[in-house]
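Module 6 notes. Inverse folding takes a fixed backbone as the condition and produces residue identities as the prediction. Think of it as a translation problem where the source language is geometry and the target language is the twenty amino acids. Below is one complete input and output pair. Work through it position by position during the lab.
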């Protein structure tokens, strides 16, 4: 997987701006590494360590499903897949266009050699040459005007082909990943706006979900105790009838709430930064 990411990053960064390269670093290093390495140690026992103050069969599972509709780790994995997919498609498109440009260049060089070798007979020497030369006009129209960009790759100065179609495809990938980032920030807020116990008494607190403060999209707290509540007719009320009827809720306790808050804020803030970077890359 790391080899594939390296190839994609190498290809896409040839055509990206400084902001684009910064985006790749944040996504494929600072965000992806949490999902594939560090996060597993914190979230490995998230369901087994979720304990409620009742042994009623099914109650704890229902409360956990209400508390964590989607696991943080799985959500981040889907999020990274969605925001990285446009870059992957651009990688394959730019490789295809580079191949077409190289084929056109080879055909033009071959034709030039034939012209220089025999000024009186300019016809292709074999069927393959004839086939390649017939495709030259079509390739020229498909590729368009080819420019050359010079970039540093390591310690070497390299020339890469650049066309308007590659330019438009790159900015289309930015627009799509910007949309995906915004959609997942909103979905994440909707899924993870867990009611902090403090907010039940002060709902106007700017850091509470009831305040509709935009900052809360990026700064969500995971409570140490979750009040599993349910109205008559809901799954929670059915599974935890005695507890809910007597106390109004089932108290459930979350494992490592502080660590999960740190991870949740870390990933949410990076999502917000990546969203801003993508927006700036479109307008600058």
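Target side of the pair, the amino acids:
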């Amino acid at each position: 997987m790391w080899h594939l990411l390296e190839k994609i990053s190498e290809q896409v960064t040839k055509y990206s701006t400084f902001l684009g390269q910064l985006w790749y670093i944040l996504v494929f290093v600072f965000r992806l590494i949490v999902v594939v390495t560090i996060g597993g140690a914190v979230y490995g026992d998230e369901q087994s360590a979720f304990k409620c103050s009742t042994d009623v069969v099914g109650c704890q599972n229902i409360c956990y499903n209400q508390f964590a509709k989607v696991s943080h780790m799985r959500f981040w994995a889907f999020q990274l897949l969605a925001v990285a997919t446009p870059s992957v498609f651009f990688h394959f498109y730019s490789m295809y266009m580079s191949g077409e440009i190289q084929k056109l260049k080879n055909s033009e060089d071959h034709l030039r050699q034939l012209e220089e070798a025999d000024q009186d007979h300019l016809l292709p020497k074999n069927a393959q040459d004839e086939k390649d030369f017939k495709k030259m006009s079509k390739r020229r129209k498909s590729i368009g005007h080819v420019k050359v960009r010079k970039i540093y790759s390591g310690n070497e100065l390299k020339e890469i082909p650049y066309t308007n179609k590659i330019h438009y495809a790159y900015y289309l990938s930015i627009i799509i990943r910007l949309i995906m980032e915004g959609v997942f920030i909103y979905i994440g807020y909707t899924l993870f706006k867990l009611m902090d116990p403090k907010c039940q008494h002060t709902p106007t607190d700017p850091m509470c979900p009831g305040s509709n403060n935009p900052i809360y999209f990026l700064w969500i707290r995971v409570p140490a105790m979750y009040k599993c509540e349910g109205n008559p007719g809901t799954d929670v009320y059915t599974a935890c009838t005695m507890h809910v009827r007597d106390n109004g809720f089932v108290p459930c306790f979350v494992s490592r709430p502080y660590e999960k808050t740190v991870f949740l804020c870390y990933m949410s803030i990076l999502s917000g930064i990546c969203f801003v970077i993508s927006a700036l890359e479109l307008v600058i």
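Reference fact for the lab report: Residues 2-283 form a domain with the de novo design (two linked rop proteins) fold (CATH 1.20.1440.80).
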